[in-house]
User: Fold this.
Amino acid sequence: MVPTCYSLATWLPSGLPFFYRFSLFFLVSNLWSCARSASLSPVDVIIPQNATSQSPFTLVRDNFLGISFELNSFDTLWGETPLTMPNPMQNYLANLRARIQSPLRVRIGGNSMDSSTFVPDQSQMIIVTDPNAYFNDVPVDFGPTFFDVLNSMADIVGEMDFIITLSMQDPSNDTDVIELARAADEMLGARLDSMLLGNEPDLYSGHGTRTNYTIQDYIPEVAEVLHDLENSVYGDLILSPVIGGPTICCSWDLSDVLNAGLSQYPYKYYTLQHYPTNICNGANAQNTNLSYFVSHTNIPSYAQWQNTGINMAHEANIPVLMTEYNTVSCGGSNVSDTFAASLWAIDAALNFAASGLSGAFLHTREYGVLYNLFDPPSPTDSTAPGWRTGSPYYSALFLSETFPPSGVAVLDINLNNSIYNPAATVAGYALYGQNGTNCDRLVLINYGNDGGNARNFTISSNVASTAGVRILEAPSITEATKISWAGQTVGPNGELEGTQTTQYYTDCANGCNISIPGPGAAIILLDVTANNASFYVGNSTIAGPGYQENSTEGSSSPTTSSSALGSRDGHGKVWRWAAAGMMVLGVLHSVL
Assistant:
């Protein structure tokens, strides 16, 4: 809860010259914090009794959030062979994998995979075939080493589910597509989650890939490729449902594609990709507008862009995935590497879940792209030290602890009328376990650019007796590097630095105020204590500096506080000296 505001007489006991200067400093800091907090009215968190009336009703698992990679730059991030996989990438992925029980979802695709060729006898993992290609569509030849690296990373980091793309650009000449499907099936085995037919076919015409390409052209070509996969020289390569699509982004509607005939085929997933804006033709007022990304009002129309098709998919019992999303397509803008992007990506993912999607993949690509989750120190040497962590990676960390493995239904609770009021600076979601009947966790977002000053979110009585809280925060909405999750920041080796912190509120039966910095976000587990909370605890570093050979889940304990005294700087570190001074002065005052 927010610290109590104390008077001058309370905190400056007479006859204590030794402590006078320090106590005066603390007093001024405390009064400023209290005055600032007082100007921010508390937000009442109203939680619906259940989520069973949600339509479409969807239970999402702990691995709802996946990571999407562009093929052409994949070797610069994951390494060129199983023996050269960079330690930082191992740690980045291990941090996420350690926080979920289900396999980590990884998708490799993009325009580059749709225009690339699998070469079964190629020893090199990836060879760029057109160095002068348009940067948003770089074709490559890739060989079986690609699958060796995928398997090796999963062996080291922990189980993963992989999604790859099969090209649809030339369906009449799909020999290499058959070879790729066979290799993926044989080399990945149970780790192969899905193969997506094509990437953004609704843009084939606009990109010049196909002339005047329409849904009516697309459906018969899907039938052609599916027939070839079922009747290949290697046998039926899609005997079990493994195909996904249509992976549209922009010009077609999922409902139109399904009605045109896609619904007749045995798809495992229907897939979408979507960005709120793009910078393909340069910067403009829309794609550089940070205020768009800090208003929850804009989220529902973005996330629910294909509601009709999603409802049709649910009626057919076929899950829908958002296989690629981020802030600004074609490389990102000034918004994409800020803390605003971190909060937005969390808000968007939760709204996807609330809108009937079963998974969402944050996209990352070659060195220097502003929305990247991580970047090597140079585009040519991924094994060198000094990787850069992008702000969206903190979204992935946050979301990896958001959903329990047992599954939850997610509901946008319209916090402070944030769905309809553009002036609202908050957002909130309730997560319901037990098949949507019991709210056992919350996610609250504070978009307020208040220099880290906290705002109270009031949970009413009879909701929970206790609560555990982890905070994502930064000094400002434009911050790019000084971001922390549960008191930790990501170092240059992909390792989490600092002490893992959790706040515990022990007296919430009659209601309590959860203090969340502005800007910041919180995961709140209801009716838990330090002894039974399901937050991840431990050191998830597995390679290089920061690795402890005997580190396992539960091997170390987070710093906790029973009353959640929230005096923090913008980096999530407790003001230890101020806290120590408060305790000393409190003891002295009690004995005077």
